[in-house]
Design goal:
449 residues, mainly alpha
């Protein structure tokens, strides 16, 4: 059986073989990542408590906003690097790497300095609607996390480059190693008599940074030496080329932050920090199927870039049909997860968090719609035709805060998830039409931009 599996993986054209190998390795890696992710939740809740954990999650979601300051450079770099590799232009590819590094280091260095200057004036206790006694501690935590996240984004060129080179499995292994390192540190912290969110901030925000830096140094001095960043390969004129596509990704990222990352703040203010824990626990549980789907989807972003650059529409159509079948299988799996969710919560969390079944139903529906939408976004992102996607997300970004606040007040967590599901459902409808137009070579106007 193993021999048959290996033969199947190694059959087909080079692009398909590479994708299948990445999927296999990614599955093995993601199995470890899921175990680490599931283990971190109860350990962290025990280290803090349900309310403090909710506060931590809300702060983390705010810090995630830092990501939009890359102004789409990461995604733009990914596509441009993949295009350069498709044309076998290693010199241009190395210029993209060197230029992306200097651009991101400059951007996030400025963000870091500006935030540190502003942080002393921000009352995070008021923002999160928590005790005034937490004010100083929250400022310290935000400072630690933001510096760590900015450093991570500045150093993230190498993991993005691996994905662009159709090796997302290697990129995922780096991320999982960082998570494992963080889990180890948190486990050691639980042995200390004093439990502090400050120590947790160092563990969760800096462990991935250390791993990314070490992996980058090692690989750029060995396997990827020909793409190693160098001052003499910096070409600032390429930034415009990256941003011509990256600018659209930037607007999409910013819009998605306003639509999705604002959820934790709204829940904290309307329902309290404990609801944030409830939301994120169910999200983490039902995202298991999403993790699996992302493993399968991940190699196809840059593979679609390669195929689209070469005009290989037959291969693109074949992959598209297969991915729809995979999503349908995962739809059944997520339904089974819903049925057994009460038992899993009790075993996993030992009764530390109560999860209403209505929240589980809403999250299950949301995750299935999210998976279908992510499939379309991944394939369209690979083609670089993202203008329509950008328009849809901008429109919903304008409505996100008032709608989420209103629906949260009426139906709680389920109301917020209903709005998010509607956003992705509408995106799916338009993306389905656009992708089919691209594959049939009938796309024009906004459908082809």
């Amino acid at each position: 059986m193993l021999k048959q599996l290996l033969n199947k993986i190694n059959s087909g054209d080079e692009r398909s073989v590479r994708a299948k190998r990445n999927i296999l390795v990614s599955f093995l890696n993601k199995g470890v990542a899921i175990l680490i992710s599931l283990a971190i939740v109860p350990i962290t809740i025990d280290y803090l408590d349900a309310e403090q954990y909710g506060i931590w999650l809300t702060l983390s979601s705010i810090v995630a906003w830092v990501s939009f300051f890359d102004v789409g450079l990461g995604h733009g770099f990914r596509n441009r690097f993949a295009e350069a590799r498709a044309h076998s232009d290693d010199i241009l590819a190395r210029k993209y790497v060197s230029t992306a590094y200097i651009a991101l280091i400059t951007i996030f260095g400025i963000v870091m300095i500006v935030f540190e200057c502003l942080n002393v004036f921000i009352r995070w206790d008021i923002v999160l609607n928590v005790s005034e006694q937490s004010a100083t501690m929250l400022q310290t935590v935000m400072s630690i996390v933001v510096v760590g996240v900015c450093t991570q984004f500045a150093m993230n060129v190498f993991p993005i480059m691996l994905s662009a080179d159709q090796r997302p499995a290697a990129s995922a292994i780096i991320a999982t190693t960082g998570q494992g390192f963080a889990l180890l540190i948190i486990a050691l912290l639980t042995l200390l008599p004093n439990h502090s969110m400050t120590y947790l901030a160092y563990a969760l925000s800096w462990a991935p940074v250390v791993v990314t830096i070490l992996a980058s140094i090692w690989m750029f001095t060995h396997k990827y030496r020909k793409f190693a960043p160098s001052f003499r390969f910096i070409d600032l004129s390429l930034i415009k080329n990256i941003l011509s596509l990256g600018g659209k990704f930037f607007v999409i990222q910013l819009s998605m932050i306003l639509i999705f990352q604002i959820v934790n703040i709204i829940l904290s203010r309307v329902l309290g920090p404990t609801s944030v824990t409830e939301y994120n626990v169910t999200y983490k549980y039902f995202s298991i199927t999403m993790m699996v789907f992302n493993i399968i989807l991940s190699p196809y972003w840059s593979a679609f870039t390669d195929a689209h650059t070469r005009g290989d529409l037959g291969w693109m159509k074949n992959v598209y049909k297969k991915l729809i079948k995979v999503w349908m299988i995962l739809l059944i799996v997520s339904s089974l997860l819903l049925v057994v969710s009460p038992i899993v919560y009790q075993t996993w969390l030992h009764g530390s968090v109560e999860i209403p079944f209505s929240t589980s139903i809403s999250m299950c529906v949301y995750m299935n719609i999210l998976g279908f939408s992510t499939m379309y976004m991944t394939l369209l992102n690979g083609t670089g035709k993202v203008l329509l996607q950008m328009i849809i997300y901008v429109a919903f970004a304008v409505l996100s805060i008032p709608c989420s606040y209103s629906l949260c007040g009426i139906w709680g967590i389920s109301g917020v998830l209903g709005f998010l599901s509607m956003v992705y459902l509408i995106q799916c409808l338009f993306a389905h039409i656009q992708l089919n137009k691209i594959l049939s070579q009938t796309a024009s106007g906004v459908w082809n931009r």
